[in-house]
Every structure is written in structure tokens, then in C-alpha cells.
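Hello again, I could really use a second opinion on something today. I owe you a coffee for this, so here goes:
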Amino acid sequence: MELHLHQGELRALFMDGFPVREALRVQDVLRQLMKAASGRYEFEAAAPDQLTNHFSLPLNTALRGLVEDARIDEAQLPHVQTVFEVQPRAEDLVGSLPATLQGSWPLLRQVFQTGGGNAAQVSERLHISVEEARLMLFQLRAAGIVVPVRAAGNVAETVQVSAPTQGGQVTAPSIPAPAPATSPVGRFLNALRRLTGRS
């Protein structure tokens, strides 16, 4: 994996030499990296003109969002086969979503157009992990944009939303903090913050 960072922003991300350009896929990769139990990280200085610029994602904002998401209890996320449908006033509420979700809403809405959609379908359509798709559905439901309508087979509905909002923005419920900074992941995140000059 290769990340191009400049002035506190993530400008490009490569997996096995191939660029990852979609915002949700970038977020998904960063989330998996944050959850990794171990890893080796190298930082190399480069001139700005040597960097690839596919997007300008504020790293501090991205990391803060990932940490907040990590506080959401697994039991609050919907089952992978639970079907959701879009609420009638969904378009009026899209502005309350995180920026990455707002940008992906046109694709997401297509998933729900034919009888609703579940995490497995969202994962396949947007090329993200099922875990990321479940989290997206949690955020969409917390914002009042989608509601569960049925579960496949005998799967019980497991979604429990208690996410408050602040200034119209969906926030995660207060749950014990994630792994301490002394873990490999914590050290990596601190190194990124030091590299970009952010606290």
C-alpha cells in the first residue's frame, strides 16, 4: 500500500500498485489499515511534483471520522441481509451525512430503487467491504434516510440506532474508546499526524 500525503491531505492511495480513487473505497482501505493488528510502515520524503494528486482528503478529518466510527458497537450495525428502503423525504436529509456518503448517495440510491437493498448489495455495487456497507446503512438509518423493511429468511433485525446529532451531522453514540495509542495502529496514526503537522 502506498499513500501520498501533502500539507495534511491524502492526495492518492495505491493498493498493489493500482490507484484507489473512489472516496468510499479509500475510507474502507483506511479503516482496514486502522484495524490491522500489526504492520510495517515507512515514510519517505518527496517533492510535491513527485506526488500523484487524485483527490484532496483532509487526513485529520478522515482519521477523526474513523475513530468515531470505531466506537459504534457491533450490535448496533444491521445484519448483512436486512433489507432497507429509502424514506420519502430522503433527499432533504442527505446534507446531514458525512461528505463521503453525500458524494456516494446517487449510487447508493440506485441500490434501493428495486424493492430495497441490503449490506451485501451495497458492498457489491460500490466495491467496498460488507463491514463498510453495514456502517453506511447504520449512518443512513440514523439520519432518517432509510428504514429496515424486512430481514431475509429468519434473520432477526439487529439494528439499534441511538446516534444523536450535532448541528445536523450524524454522530456516533458514546461507547468506550478504541485501542490505545501504544498499539501498532495507534503508533501508525500518531506517526501520520506528526508527519502532516496535525495534533
Summary: Residues 2-71+180-196 form one domain. The two ends are 24 Å apart (CA to CA). The first strand starts at residue 2 and ends at 6. The first helix runs from residue 23 to 35.
